[in-house]
Specification:
By secondary structure, this protein is mainly α. It is 49% helix and 0% strand. The chain contains two helices and no strands. The chain is globular, with a radius of gyration of 13 Å.
């Protein structure tokens, strides 16, 4: 669990430095499609955007 948290923290810090989510940070096609949809929707800005929460459950 600690390793997952540290990896997530590293990714968040990198995104904050870069200002965008790089494609190699996404783990699946589902995650890629989610961010593509979020990026192309008109009206989203750094200050005005919906919360990006997605629950991924394992079967």
């Amino acid at each position: 669990m600690k390793m997952l948290y540290e990896e997530m923290t590293r990714k968040v810090e990198l995104v904050m430095e870069q200002g965008f989510v790089d494609d190699d940070m996404l783990n699946s096609e589902k995650e890629h499609q989610f961010f593509v949809q979020w990026k192309v929707t008109d009206g989203f800005t750094r200050q005005n955007h919906p919360t990006l929460i997605q629950k991924i459950s394992q079967n």
